[in-house]
Amino acid sequence: MTSTTVTYLPNDILLTWFNENYKPAYMTKYERNSESRMTLLFNAPTDSAPELRIVASDGPLAALNGKPSSEWAAIDMSAGRDSLDIWITDSAVIRTDSLLISARYLMTDTTDRLVWATDTVKMFMRNSGKKKKTATRTTSPRPTMKPPTRQLPPRLRFQRWQSLSTVERLSSSTAPCA
């Protein structure tokens, strides 16, 4: 018994118009959460981890200029592969309040192809969690004075009266009869 089947070639065509789970890949957010932790968020899961490098021409981080992240940080990718936690291990990088980092990652271009893109991001350490010390006052506070009340000069009161509409003038000039 033989059967005849029809095979249409080429049979390796991918129809992307009907791909329901498609999301373009790009970096959505980056932030420095604490002194030793940074976060990169992506719109879609990525197959490979981004390449991170410090950009510094002078200062305490000049020795790490262009060095891969494996020398100054430990990278932790989320289970969904759409966020990246960077734990800074180098003490010189931890002490720096602002970092300039070059991130090379896979991004979707205008023709919906994954290409390597490089973004330079500025990571700033925010002091939102630290409370500032307030100076305690040893002397008694000054007494507060009320501001003087001012009345408009007659000429300005007249100009305001002229600028009112007819309805407003009539309603303000009529007094209730007693």
Produce a short descriptive summary.
By secondary structure, the protein is α+β, with helices and mostly antiparallel strands. The chain contains three helices and seven strands; from the N terminus they run E-E-E-E-E-H-E-E-H-H. A hairpin with a 5-residue loop joins strand 4 and strand 5.
Model description:
- The chain has 178 residues and is α+β, with helices and mostly antiparallel strands.
- It has a domain at 23-124: Immunoglobulin-like, CATH 2.60.40.
- Helices cover 13% and strands 29% of the residues.
- A four-stranded antiparallel sheet has the order 1-2-5-4. A three-stranded antiparallel sheet has the order 3-6-7, with no helix packed on it.
- The N and C termini lie far apart (115 Å).
Rg is: 33 Å
- The CATH topology label of the domain at 23-124 is Immunoglobulin-like
Number of H- or I-type helical stretches? 3
Largest sheet: number of strands, sense, barrel closure: 4 strands, antiparallel
Outline the low-pLDDT stretches.
Answer: none
* SS content category: alpha+beta
The neighbouring-strand order within the major sheet is 1-2-5-4
Global geometry: elongated
Average per-residue pLDDT, rounded, comes to 77
Question: What is the tally of beta strands?
Answer: 7
The arrangement of helices and strands along the chain is: EEEEEHEEHH
Which percent range describes the beta-strand content?
25-35%
Task: Tell me the name of the CATH class of the domain at 23-124.
Answer: Mainly Beta
Distance between the termini: 115 Å
At CATH level 2, the architecture of the domain at 23-124 is Sandwich
Indicate the percent of residues in helices: 10-25%
